[in-house]
Amino acid sequence: MNSIRLLSMLTLAVALAAQTPQPAKQHRKLGEQVGIWDAELAYLDFNTGKQATSRGTSIRKQPPGALWLIDSFQAKVMGMPFKGMGTTGYDPQKKKMVGTWIDSMTPSLMVIEGNWDDAGKVLTMAGMGTGADGDPVKMKLVTTVHSADKHVFQMFTQTPDGEDMLTMTITYTRRTRQMD
Q1: 173 pLDDT band (50/70/90 cuts)?
Q2: Nearest-angstrom CA–CA distance, 50 and 52
Q3: From CA 171, how far away is CA 89, in angstroms rounded?
Q4: Which of 20, 75, 149, 164 is within CB 3.0–4.6 Å of 174 for a Cys-Cys bond?
């Protein structure tokens, strides 16, 4: 009985290994972002209607493997502690980058999708987020890779007349590639 169980388990393991997806070039691009990043924020303070600045930290890891990037972010926003967490991956069925975002100031999950430009330097994603009034709003997120160690993220919120209004820019500079 034990040898039959062992043989069954080995057969299952081999079958699962044969079906395990291999990382595509889009997945490998996520691995290039692993590390600790310093963040310089410039954002529209919805309380005052004025531009504000802050500093933060982004810790990017791939704990479930090379298919997903997990981003843990913290900063002060509008004078309050802010924590957020995002996931980014590539969905080969959709042929799109996909992601989620949650944070300490927003009660709703943001689901986004998009693609890299042909040069692989600009990732544009879009989805529904929560606006300053708490209502759903279309958002566009654009990340431009200036170098392996410098990325600029811009968040645009769609206005009632359909225009994209820049509400946040974060300049990321990699502090280290090493992860504990």
Answers
A1: very high
A2: 6
A3: 21
A4: 149
At residue 96, what are phi and psi to the nearest 5 degrees? -145, 155
Residue reference for tokens 């994603």: 125
Q: pLDDT tens-digit profile of 52-62?
A: 999 999 999 99
Q: Determine the Cα angle at 165 with ends 34 and 96, to 5°.
A: 45
Give the Cα separation of 31 and 60 in Å (integer). 9
Longest pairwise C-alpha distance within the chain = 72
pTM recorded for the entire structure: 0.85
Rounded CA-CA distance 36/34 in Å is: 7
Q: Enumerate residues 6+ apart whose C-beta is below 8 A from 133.
A: none
Cβ-count burial 75-85 (b if 16+ within 10 Å, e if not): bebeeeebebe
Using the 8-state DSSP alphabet, how is residue 4 labeled?
Answer: H
SS3 track for 119-138:
CCCEEEEEEEEECCCCCEEE
Mean pLDDT of 90-105: 95
Q: What is the pLDDT of residues 28-86, one digit of tens each?
A: 889 999 999 999 999 988 788 889 999 999 999 998 788 999 999 999 998 899 999 99
